[in-house]
Amino acid sequence: MIRSMTGYAAAEAPIPPHGARGTLALELRSVNARYLDIQFRIHDDLRALEPLLREMLAGRLARGKIDCRLFLNESAGVQAPGRVNTEAVARLRELAAEISRTLPQAAPLRVADVLRWPGVLAEAPRDEAQTRALAAELGRKALAELIAAREREGSKLAAAIAERVAAMRKRIVELAPLLPQALAAYQARLAERLREAIGKDDDERVRAELALFAARSDVDEELTRLRAHLAEVERSLAQGGAMGKRLDFLAQELNREANTLASKAASAEISDCALELKLLIEQMREQVQNIE
Questions:
Q1: Are 223 and 260 in contact (CB under 8 A)?
Q2: Which of these, 89, 30, 94, 106, lies nearest to 65 by C-alpha position?
Q3: Closest-CA residue to 10 (of 173, 175, 195, 141)
Q4: What DSSP state is assigned to residue 25?
């Protein structure tokens, strides 16, 4: 399928064991870019997971600016009771005894006071292997969601491009029967002006000038290349995959041929057709810029 470069996905899961520390959350945002540009915003405690996520994203995405955010959502879970630091409690007891000797009237410490003292409760170390496995699972889930979103938008872009291609084909078909008549009429007017300018008796020079004009005004080659480029656009849309750069190149070539057609226009109808083709090509290029 054709994919857009724009999308969003998110995934989160409880941090083992049992989500006591909250949740691990991953967000992916994707916008247009010329190449694949992956940027990370990761909690300092999770920085070691960046290479894993970078490899996953680079393996499935071809283009786009990807903003990857991995963070701990502690407010979403229940705080773990932690482990009592006996050394900190012993030090606090010594300090409390010293204060009691100095200030006998001071109230003794309560359990809640002890637990709030910095360093008394030490959290158990996080299982790095479990955290890495969880990050990989979130990465796969969010990446699949992001790709699905890009494919949904890509199908809409492909349909819009196909509409422009059909409109261009229709305009070329309408233009083809007008070319001989328009060329003959312009040659007749040109012949009359040439005879007035160089003399009525110099028919040979008039014929030479008309032959030169006919060669320069022949647009069959441009129309043939336009049809060939349009067929290639349709083939690329049907093939799918990362076709953004290829479609952008084809749009440039279509615009080149439309410009040449406009410069050779022998009538107002041909000129109008060339301008309409250029407008349709520009509309197509705007859509192509969003394709991976």
A1: no
A2: 30
A3: 141
A4: E
Q: Which amino acid is at 159?
A: A
Q: What pLDDT tens digit does each residue of the chain (292 aa) get? A: 899 999 999 999 988 765 556 789 999 999 999 999 999 999 888 899 999 999 999 999 999 999 999 998 865 444 455 577 777 778 878 888 888 888 788 788 787 777 677 766 665 556 788 889 999 999 999 999 999 999 999 999 999 999 999 999 999 888 877 766 656 555 555 555 555 556 555 566 555 555 545 555 567 788 889 999 999 999 999 998 889 999 999 999 999 999 988 877 767 777 888 899 999 999 999 999 999 9
DSSP structure string for 24-62? EEEEEEEE--SSEEEEEEE-GGGGGGHHHHHHHHHHH--
Q: Phi-psi region for residue 22, left (φ > 0), alpha (ψ -120 to 50) or beta?
A: left
CATH fold group of domain 7-78+128-150: Ribosomal Protein S5; domain 2 (3.30.230)
- Find the distance separating the first CA and the last CA of the chain, reported in whole Å: 11
**Cβ 48 vs Cβ 59: under 8 Å:** no
Only one residue has tokens 């008039």, namely: 206
Tell me, what amino acid is at 221?
A: E
Instruction: Tell me the three state secondary structure of residue 64.
Output: strand
Question: Cβ(114)–Cβ(73) under 8 Å?
Answer: no
Where would I find the H helices in 109-202? 111-116, 128-175, 178-198
Amino acid at 28: L
Report residue 219 as tokens. 């647009």
- Minimal CA–CA distance to 254: which of 197, 145, 169? 169
Q: Which of 179, 174, 164, 181 is nearest to 250 (CA)?
A: 164
